[in-house]
Task: structure prediction
Amino acid sequence: MTKRLVILDCDGVLFDSSAANVAFYNAILDRMGRPPLDAEGEVLAHWMGSPQLIAKLFADDAEGHRAARTLARELDYTPFLHLMQPVPELAETLLWIRERSATALATNRGSTVPQLLEHFGLDGHFDLVVGTNHVARPKPAPDMLLHCLEHFTLDPSQAVYVGDSPSDREAALAAGMEFIAVGTLAHERRVATLAGLRAVLR
Result:
C-alpha cells in the first residue's frame, strides 16, 4: 500500500503515555480538591482531548469546569514528560516512513505538543503537526485529518491515518480515509506496534 501522506496519532502510537496523562490530570484534580481519576477516567485520559475530559469530569460544576480548563492550559507538562515511554524503533520507523511519504501528526493534544516533540528530539520528523488548538473540533470529528488533506492538497484516498483508539478510527472513517490500528484496537488493518507499519506500508 503506497500513500502520499501518512498521518500518525501521538499517544498510544508514538508513546506509551498513559502514566504521564494520568499524572497530569491527577495534578489538576488535586489542585481542585478533587479525588484522582477512577479507572474509567484513566482510560479516557489516554485518548480524550483535555477539553473533552475536563468537561466530563466537571459536568456538574460550571465554575470548577472553568477553573480546571485554566489550570490545564497553564500547568507545565514538562515534569510529566519523563513518564512517557517512546515505542520501540520510534525514530527509525519515522525516518523510514518519511523516505516514502509526507508525514503529519494529528493528536488530541494541544499546547503540550511542541515541548513533547522537542523533549524527545522529534520536532523535525513531521511535515505538519495538528493539535486541538488548530481546528474547531477534536477527534472523533474529522477536522484534523481534513486539515491535513487540505494542507497537502490531497484526496482522502491518498492518505492513511494510524491510530490506536475508537476516536481515531471514527475520525478516519468520517474523513473517508483508510485507517490502520496500532495495538489491540479491533480493525481489519492492524499492526501490533508502530514498527509493524514497515510490513504494510510500501
Notes: The CA atoms of residues 35 and 186 lie 32 Å apart. The two ends are 6 Å apart (CA to CA).
